[in-house]
Amino acid sequence: MNDRAPRLYFLDWIRICAFFLLILYHTGMYYVSWDWHVKSPHAGSAIEPLMMLSSPWRLGLLFLISGAALSFLLQKLGGGAVVRQRSARLLLPLVFGMFVIVPPQPYFEVVEKVAYGGSYLDFMRLYVSAYPGFCRGDDCLDMPTWNHLWFVAYLWAYTLLLAGLFAALGARWQRLSDWLGRTLTGWRIVALPLAVLAIARVALLNRFPTTHDLVNDWYNHANYLTLFLLGALLARQPDWWRRVEALRFAALGIALACWAILVPYFAITQHMDLGDVGLWRDLQRVIYALCQWCAILAVCGFGHRHLQFDSAKRHYLTRAVFPVYILHQTLIVLLSQALKPAALPPATEGLILVVLTLTGSFGIFEVVRRVPPLRPLFGIAPAGEPADRADRAPVRAAA
């Protein structure tokens, strides 16, 4: 790869912003009526339309960017080296997270949902022994669990798949990338990926609702793996990114229009029988996929236009964002339970949760990055190693 190739700084900035959006989103999950680990006494539907602004596309965008970044890494290091590096960087934090970072989340969940009265130590004995008895009706808590770290498990599995494809296709990978870059022009930029995402949603979502268990989550695989592979194939197509930039306002308008349709649809149909909804549900799923893809195009287009620059902040935040991601949801759950006795108004409490989660996550990151034995547990490469330098290097595009 040409060392003078233009650098895709904007993808790093978008990834940083998307992970920080997760903090806002998961704080919001404490206050909405949707199922989550713990719930505020003030939980209701008031902010659900705001949550819907990002829920269709946020994670898909992260998978697309992850595919793009991995594509460049495969080109530079080769499949074997990438698999070894990514396995160490993803699997160790995943296992550590499942047994150290995540457990407070299901502990407070069973305290709240099934009135568990044991201590945290008693709970951990049940947790590590895969106790199956924390149930509400047919809904039982699986333990041990990765909770929000499911993204890490999926990213590792997709890394293995992409490395295998890259090795099997050889030079044909670049030809496939070039063909896709030539094909996705004009209306096809929107229509062709939309067709794949919409068909997957209409055909698979009923049969395979979201589980995040990796094995039986076939709709999510059809969704996220499609975007991951798209990112990997299109990363080295600079003309495609310029086309997306030109579409940014149109894509934003379509995404917002779709959101304005989805919000009243869900409000109207939430108490209806599925038979009464009929074909409207399939139409809603097409609109949802259109919202997802156009929002991703809009974010990438505006990012390409306005975030194509480097700074010391990017270097710092690129290393911080993964440890912050690992920590943030557990901190939200712990802080929410600590703040309950204060009985604060939800707007005040929510703001405090966001501030304390951000400062707490970055505070822990500052400690971890200075303690060499802790760095691998949070996905931070040892200081000075090539992987550490790669974390701080931007995604690069073909010349």
From TrEMBL:
Annotated ranges, domain Acyltransferase: 9-364
InterPro entries tied to this protein: Acyl_transf_3_dom (IPR002656), Glucan_succinyl_AcylTrfase (IPR050623)
GO MF term list: acyltransferase activity, transferring groups other than amino-acyl groups
Keywords on record: Acyltransferase, Membrane, Transferase, Transmembrane, Transmembrane helix
Transferase keyword on record: yes
Transmembrane segments: 12-32, 59-78, 90-108, 151-173, 185-206, 218-235, 247-266, 286-304, 316-339, 351-368
Annotated Pfam families: Acyl_transf_3 (PF01757)
Name of the protein: Acyltransferase family protein
Source organism per UniProt: Pseudoduganella namucuonensis
